[in-house]
Amino acid sequence: MDTLFAIKFIYSFMLPPGLFIPLLLLAALYYRRKHQLGPARFSTAMALLLYLFSISAVGETMIRSLENRYLPPDKPSGDVIIMLGGGATMDTPDIDGLGQMTGGSANRLLTAARLHQLTGAPIIVSAGQVFENSGNESRIAFRQLTGLGVPESMIIVEEMSRNTEENARYTKEILDARGFHKPILVTSAFHMERSVGHFSKLGVSTLPFPTDYRVNRQARYSLNDWAPSAVAMSNASLAMKEYLGLIPLWLK
């Protein structure tokens, strides 16, 4: 066993969320010594669940099951590119203004800009201001896309939507009004199935172009993947959120 990996593995139990696992096990041991089997079993179960949902071996498997459902086409073609937002800051400094697209959204924006260069198709940026303390994603994306060389005339802003369902609804209005029939849909790979589902529900057929991959397509595990981490827990949480969002689409 590599000493560095061993140190990292041990260290992972000294920071959240790994820190809470030994604390729960200590609580279980305390209750067991007090002959309080109910609380002891509950603490043990919570420690096990926390461990499982905070290791990459589980989190990556969950997110990979969503990301691998669509692959980017080799030769994408369409008459418009739909880029869905996914978060933005309001007042953080940028090169030419305030506010930035967050990590996943920035990846979507970069992919949309590159697809525009490849296809010459205009870009519909579909995203509004979700919370009072978050940025207006479409306006920030408009500024950043023009900074990357996309002409203003080739960017269409849809800034009313606050979730995926509204993305599809308001974007469809633009598609109908402007006569677009072959949209290329750009969003994070883990979010693609739910996005395609909402557009399909409205009768809009899209060409999925997933981006912003969180994990490798092929599973490759090492000792570090069995250590708890906030990133692994974030992947598990994202996957659970997507599956919950897919339930209404499956039921219909």
UniProtKB/TrEMBL annotation:
What GO biological process terms are annotated to this protein in UniProt?
A: Gram-negative-bacterium-type cell wall biogenesis; peptidoglycan metabolic process
**Annotated ranges, domain DUF218:** 79-245
What CDD domains does UniProt report for this protein, alphabetically? YdcF-like
Instruction: Give the UniProt entry's GO cellular component terms.
Output: plasma membrane
Q: Which residues cross the membrane?
A: 6-30, 42-63
Keywords recorded for this protein, A-Z: Membrane, Transmembrane, Transmembrane helix
Say which domain of life the source belongs to: Bacteria
In the UniProt record, the signal sequence range is none
The molecule here is called DUF218 domain-containing protein
Q: Which organism is it from?
A: Heliobacterium modesticaldum (strain ATCC 51547 / Ice1)
Lineage of the organism: Bacteria, Bacillati, Bacillota, Clostridia, Eubacteriales
